[in-house]
Amino acid sequence: MAEHHYLIVANGDWPSIESLRSLTESSSKIIACDGAAEQCIEQKIPFDVVIGDMDSLSEGFKSQLNQRNDVQFIVQEGQQENDLVKAMKWAIEDGAQHIDVVGVEGGEIDHQFAAILALCEVKFSARIHTTKSTVELIEKSGYYNASIPKGSTFSLFAVGEVKGLSVSGCKWNLENKSMHPGTLGLHNVVTENCLEIQYTSGLLLLFLNR
């Protein structure tokens, strides 16, 4: 178990139960977003905190949770942020040093898109795990990964303008380029022992396929 390593479980489709259990075992605290608490209980996934506006939970279930001494029940009713952003901000205030997120798939596409943009709203060491990939905001310090198998595919997407972008270790390298929102960074392939990504300004999302 990694100290200050938090897992946020959202109320959508989860990756495989094996992947999820691996994440729970490596997390020091597990946060269920609103209705995800019911999924956790059904799948026997432990959790320490329930957070959100609680509009997805029945009154009976909320009463049960309030009676549990091993679960923090945190109601945040504001509509300016979705439950994932609320959970991420709470985790950071609670001392998290890294956050993993599951359960953002399924449902309406705008909600899925908003979950990914939450990585840009709350700029932190965080990674979303989907059924087929991971998504993370590349930190300004750069990205260096020597554990990705050759042949793995990935995509880079700019949120706004990204400047000074250099990418090496892949089929289509870049050197000090600018990237704007669009399809330029779609579907690249790792060809070397280390994938390296650097940029000087902007927001850059990495989608790494399993």
Question: Care to give the gist of this entry?
Answer:
It contains 5 helices and 13 strands.
SSE map:
Layout: E1 5-9, H1 17-25, E2 29-33, H2 36-42, E3 49-52, H3 59-66, E4 72-75, H4 83-93, E5 98-102, H5 109-121, E6 126-129, E7 133-137, E8 143-145, E9 153-168, E10 174-179, E11 188-189, E12 195-198, E13 201-209
For the record, the CATH class of the largest domain is Alpha Beta
Helix content: 10-25%
Main pleated-sheet profile: 13 strands, mixed
Fold-level CATH name of the largest domain: Rossmann fold
CATH superfamily of the largest domain: Thiamin pyrophosphokinase, catalytic domain
Give the overall shape.
elongated
Helices and strands, in order, run as EHEHEHEHEHEEEEEEEE
Secondary structure class reads alpha/beta
Beta-strand residue fraction: 25-35%
First and last CA, distance: 23 Å
Number of helices: 5
At CATH's second level, what is the architecture of the largest domain? Answer: 3-Layer(aba) Sandwich
Q: Using DSSP, what is the number of strands?
A: 13
Taking pLDDT < 50 over at least 5 consecutive residues as the criterion, the unreliable ranges are: none
Return Rg in Å: 18 Å
Number of individual domains = 2
| Mean pLDDT value | 91
